[in-house]
Amino acid sequence: MTENVELMNKYGPRLQYDRNFKGPRQRDRSCTDVPCLIIFLLFLAGWAFIAQYALKNGDLNKLMVPTDMFNQKCGIDSSVLKKKYLFFFNLDKCIDPLVPITGCDTPQVCVESCPSQTFVWDSMKNKDFNELKRLLVCKTDADKAAIYSKSDMQRAIDENRCARYYIKSQPFLNRCMFEFSDQLCELLPDSLFRNRRDTASSMLLPGNWSQELQMQAMALSLQSEAQARVAPQTSAKQAPVDEKVGQCRRQQINSAVIKEKMMQTNTRLAKMVGNLVAHFYNGTHDAQQLGEEIVEDLVNSATVVLTTLILTMIASLIFISVMRWLAGPILWISIFGVLIGLLVAIYYGIKQYTFWKNTAAVPQHALNLQSQLQNLLQDSNNWLYLSIFLCVSFVIILLLVIVLRKRIRIAIALTKEGSKAVSTVISTVFFPIFSWALYILAIAYAIGVGLYLATIGTPSFLMVRRLTESGEVTTEQCVCQGPAINYTVGAACDPNIFQQYCYINQRLESCIQTTCSFNEIDNPPFVQWSIAYNVFGFLWLSFFISAFSEMVLAATFARWYWTFKKRDVPYFTLTTAFCQTAAYHLGTLAFGSLILAICRLIRLVLEYIDSKLKKYDNAVTRAILCCMRCFFWLLETFLRFLNRNAYIMCAIHGKNFCTSAKDAFNLLMRNFLRVVALDKVTDFLFFLSKLLLTGGAGVATYYFLANNPSVIQLNHKAVPTTVVVIAAFLITSVFFGVYSMAVDTLFLCFLEDCERNDGSPEKPYFMSKQLMKILGKKNKLPQRQRRSK
């Protein structure tokens, strides 16, 4: 009994508040929007059924079927029914990050089997003609059939109609990939790893040939020498060699072999970067060299980059912690900096307007971008319009600062409170990692189900004619008989029947330039609806994950605000908020995310309709679709804002979605000016903070690399600096995303606090003393405490 009296004396206002305001207390909550949760669970069950159906009936091999340079599906189209593997003349050219967009710039043909041995024309041209012709791989069977002598073979290879070289390959996803023997080490004595490199280098091929081919030639030479060494005639030396062979896999694999593999990896990465640079940089050799230098710089500076990013993460945490003292100065300096910058821009615009108005300039008539830009800069009217716009912007911002100066002070104070909240519950800054993991799982699940669904159905084929290299349609007269008598170009066909009954002459020679080619997979109606179901499921689930993350953070920061003495905040506040959200409010999250998913689906449908109607080029249709797309974009933006605040109110009070959304909207509308001031002020402040930390990381990295050349040798200091800047911006965005959620939550709590409480002992304010000072409010002490003072 005495203990209860002491608690009432110590925490009287707080306990009295808890009795009157049941929102923040977890034990007074109940499950919200249960019907929506049931619908969501049933929807997920249906999605799981579709996934099971897709896995059972789908076949990803249908999507992995390669296509050759003549747009023929290997092993499927009529002309390549027995050729299911794709062979690349030069696989090096496929090591390019833009290959999915630009394609692999090398001849690609369908073959019956991947090469089982290495072929090098320049070193094997003295072999038997029939053997060489058997090993030859050409673009078409006609090219190979037209070879009757080695001179014909040389001509075909020089004209790139046949491959000059290839390496022993193994099929991977029906594509022939290089194969390097893992048994090579067992055939080489230990001394070869040290002493035979120079001998083998004399066997290397010309420098313009691929490194893989050079390495294979070196391997062949080393292998042949190793076999000669272990011949029976040298049985006296067999034991030392066997001993070295036994040590090869155990000792050398960790040094020379792994180092060689790393060299291959770096070379491939350098080639990939070089190919990427080649698209924007003139000169293939220069681009390749630049790619190698970029990769070398990235490898050499990896330690510096990682260290800088770790320091950026620490700096972000420290920055958020000290924002409680620096938020005001940073914001006011930024505001006056923007105003001064506008004044300078206005002065420069007026100066340019005066100059070009009194200067006769001849416009540039060239159609390039530089000439058009110069014409814009020489037009005095453009400078006049720009100056007017800047003047209006300056006046508006200045008036807003004057009118909203008190509300800006409130925003600064709330920003400081957000800093305190994040610093107190530091685990919140790492909570987005959990959301990312869920996002990745959702994306992988949706993509996997979608791919399997896309393979369910009957493949359709069309009778088509090939295009020449100049893009013209071939004119081959392909005549079909028997079951294929009705086959015409552009009509449906069957590849097996086409191959048996379609010919180009009386000698029954198969059609070459006309084929029965794969068109698409005709999905049945159920599969089409399942694909739409899968798309909507991904939208709903992704919005649900985002909503769950927002409500957990909102509940955490709301618990911090509604704790009267902030030092009494529970240690596992984030864990408690997580369990509270999962136990009571999943239905609310399902309801809010469903609304956003429907809105996003409508936008996707409008984009699809717009893409289909572009060919009609109807101005009225385009205008209507543009208005509808703009409307639904604005609607989705508003719904995201409303949902975010509804989740915060649900975290505070524990009410359902509709009630929380209504309360949040009414509360925000009653404090509209405060909302505008806080939203824009905090967004601007967070942007400046991210810019400051990102720029600081980039400048520090460049300064360290420039002033310590003896520590790290680099070709381009901008390479690691660019990586640091991009990664630092992403890191700071994560930290300040949590910070933004904290400020939004505390803002709604602050508005709720102002309306529900009056500072009396029964209803004390929970806001900080700084906020009470700005608003001219204070808490009245209980009568017993006033007497004790």
From TrEMBL:
<feature type="transmembrane region" description="Helical">
    <location>
        <begin position="330"/>
        <end position="350"/>
    </location>
</feature>
<protein>
    <recommendedName>
        <fullName>Choline transporter-like protein</fullName>
    </recommendedName>
</protein>
<feature type="transmembrane region" description="Helical">
    <location>
        <begin position="618"/>
        <end position="639"/>
    </location>
</feature>
<feature type="transmembrane region" description="Helical">
    <location>
        <begin position="583"/>
        <end position="606"/>
    </location>
</feature>
<comment type="function">
    <text>Choline transporter.</text>
</comment>
<feature type="transmembrane region" description="Helical">
    <location>
        <begin position="304"/>
        <end position="323"/>
    </location>
</feature>
<dbReference type="GO" id="GO:0005886">
    <property type="term" value="C:plasma membrane"/>
</dbReference>
<keyword id="KW-1133">Transmembrane helix</keyword>
<dbReference type="InterPro" id="IPR007603">
    <property type="entry name" value="Choline_transptr-like"/>
</dbReference>
<feature type="transmembrane region" description="Helical">
    <location>
        <begin position="383"/>
        <end position="404"/>
    </location>
</feature>
<feature type="transmembrane region" description="Helical">
    <location>
        <begin position="538"/>
        <end position="562"/>
    </location>
</feature>
<dbReference type="Pfam" id="PF04515">
    <property type="entry name" value="Choline_transpo"/>
</dbReference>
<feature type="transmembrane region" description="Helical">
    <location>
        <begin position="34"/>
        <end position="55"/>
    </location>
</feature>
<comment type="similarity">
    <text>Belongs to the CTL (choline transporter-like) family.</text>
</comment>
<keyword id="KW-0472">Membrane</keyword>
<keyword id="KW-0812">Transmembrane</keyword>
<keyword id="KW-0325">Glycoprotein</keyword>
<feature type="transmembrane region" description="Helical">
    <location>
        <begin position="684"/>
        <end position="705"/>
    </location>
</feature>
<dbReference type="GO" id="GO:0022857">
    <property type="term" value="F:transmembrane transporter activity"/>
</dbReference>
<feature type="transmembrane region" description="Helical">
    <location>
        <begin position="425"/>
        <end position="454"/>
    </location>
</feature>
<feature type="transmembrane region" description="Helical">
    <location>
        <begin position="725"/>
        <end position="751"/>
    </location>
</feature>
